[in-house]
Amino acid sequence: MRRLGTLGLSLLTAASLAAAGSVSASAGTVAPLVPPIIHEDFTPLPCNQTTTLGLEGCAEHQLLRADQRIDREVRLLFGLLHDNAARGRLSTAQRTWLAYRRADCLSQSDIYEGGTQAAVEFGACAVSADLARSADLHGFYRGLVQGRHDAPAFP
Predict the structure, then answer these.
(1) Measured distance CA(12)–CA(47) in Å, rounded
(2) What does residue 23 show for φ and ψ, rounded to 5 degrees?
(3) Residue 130 belongs to what domain range?
(4) The pLDDT of residue 40 is above 50
(5) Whole-angstrom Cα distance, residue 40 to residue 65?
(6) Domains in the chain: how many in total?
(7) Above 70 in pLDDT, residue 38?
(8) pLDDT number for residue 104
(9) Helix residue ranges, H only, 20-150
(10) Which of 43, 44, 98, 147 has the highest CB neighbour number within 10 Å of its CB?
(11) Do the Cβ atoms of 127 and 63 come closer than 8 Å?
(12) For residue 108, is it within any domain?
């Protein structure tokens, strides 16, 4: 199995749990929604442009930085939304996007199936997907703050 390709259920489960309001059985209350956070299922390798493992490490470091940026952007958008229904829809969109990113990048890395380059390809694909998602989130932000002079800056 690919190192980077093991994002798997831990990523989706963590995002799902972070995004969903949970009900406390004893108190019967609903916990507040919190923005979903991306959790990668790897410890990054050192970045080294001269080896395949090193290239994988470079991709992992880039992915972690891109994920952190998306987390900041989603957290900002989450705070700008007016109610839990809208926050829930953003959380659902984020979880769905993460599942799509994983499936798409696994598919694209199949070019190198069984080889060490597969993990490098997966990482590059995931970084590219993160950059596209960030652009989408920025467009969403512009719509939310249109006409507001007190809007916080987009990360």
Answers:
(1) 26
(2) -100, 130
(3) 50-144
(4) yes
(5) 11
(6) 1
(7) yes
(8) 98
(9) 52-80, 84-109, 117-145
(10) 98
(11) yes
(12) yes
Cα(5)–Cα(57) distance, rounded to whole angstroms? 13
The mean pLDDT value for 127-135 works out to 98
Structural domain includes residue 7: no
Of 41, 23, 21, 50, nearest to 126 (Cα)? 41
Contact 22, 109 (CB under 8 A): no
- Would residue 41 count as lying in a domain? no
Q: What is the pTM of this model?
A: 0.79
CATH number at residue 102: 1.20.1270.180
Question: Within a domain: residue 113?
Answer: yes
Largest CA distance in the chain: 57
Q: How confident is the model at residue 31 (pLDDT cuts 50, 70, 90)?
A: low
Res 27: pLDDT: 53
Q: Which residue has the higher pLDDT, 45 or 33?
A: 45
The one-letter code for the residue type at 13 is T
The token duo for 7 is: 């994002």
pLDDT value for 28: 59
